[in-house]
Design goal:
homodimer, Rossmann fold, 8 helices
Amino acid sequence: MDGVRVIEIKKSIFADNNEDADALRSELKRRGTYLLNLMSSPGSGKTTTLIKTINLIKDKIRISVMEADIDSDVDALKIKEATGIDSIQLHTGGMCHLDAEMTRQGLDNLPLEGVDLVILENVGNLVCPAEFDTGAVRNAMILSVPEGHDKPLKYPLMFSVCDLVIVNKIDVMPYFDFDMAKCEEYVHMRNPKARIIPICAKTGEGVEKVAGWLLEEVNNWKNK
Amino acid sequence: MDGVRVIEIKKSIFADNNEDADALRSELKRRGTYLLNLMSSPGSGKTTTLIKTINLIKDKIRISVMEADIDSDVDALKIKEATGIDSIQLHTGGMCHLDAEMTRQGLDNLPLEGVDLVILENVGNLVCPAEFDTGAVRNAMILSVPEGHDKPLKYPLMFSVCDLVIVNKIDVMPYFDFDMAKCEEYVHMRNPKARIIPICAKTGEGVEKVAGWLLEEVNNWKNK
């Protein structure tokens, strides 16, 4: 695992996570650093989507990545090898989500000086991560075509807290019963303002829209 | 939702879930009822797999199903319509898993008299459900091809507690980078005794092996 640091995350001691998350957001605002919390089911393509997106914008803004995982180190190494950017692995030691204090433990291990964007890849789970504000400016999630268009019905909180829903693996749409119109209807039932971007991370199709959304977000955060 | 009962599950009050799970298993043993706990990621095909499996064995043994979900009722209705068997929906009210006491709340709402097999479809989540013994005789999980063969590396506990790993959606294998040999290697790294059955729930391919495993399990439980 040469060149990838692994941080063992400890359980939080803060009683009020929402308060702590607001405090973290204020700190990040002062530093001019935008934090994105990226969530999804296991195997929806978070890491591949990140790699493709980062490679489109890494010459324009400075980016770091925190990869949360219960145990393995494969994702942080993949990101580092494929993009060359700073990437650390956060081990949650079995914990199913990250909260603001756990996110801060990760940030404390990154050089944040001059960093415009930190992306937190949360634990693969549509339930628990949605319940905890990490201190991120925005939440985004990836729903992959093989999972089915009915997921917003089954995991309501996840879809209601996300500002961006990336629909990944659209290349395999012909082999699955995935109805994009129904997907959009269900997502907007949970969050009428959610932006939906269909992509294929493998081929890169649509990823420029995700990159564009992120660049605009980061610029707005710095300038508002 | 005609004909499907929805049970709102309450948080458990028991301090020692392992003890409670053992007690539930003993009760089920006395009744001659086998309980299977089926877990997976969201969208891996649990409900379709159940429907196909149940239709192969429902004339041989008496089966009931409990569908756990955070919010929706679609799965219990689907099971009932497609198989004709007793099926209830358990609402976890946002909770990410079921423990033994929550499972008991569901069982209390089923007619168990003469029922040979109860299948619990747990919340779609590879993290938290693995941490709680539900009182089931066995744990099974479904890993679908689009999720990738590396999942046993990333969700170690889930794979170590499962006696059966069903690899679903093998029909789309040509469109994904899924290595079945690696998958088997990683599963057995977590649990050397785990049985692995590749299937396509959509077409029914391989489902007879799952049905055969279940029938044998139920018979052994009754007769040992």
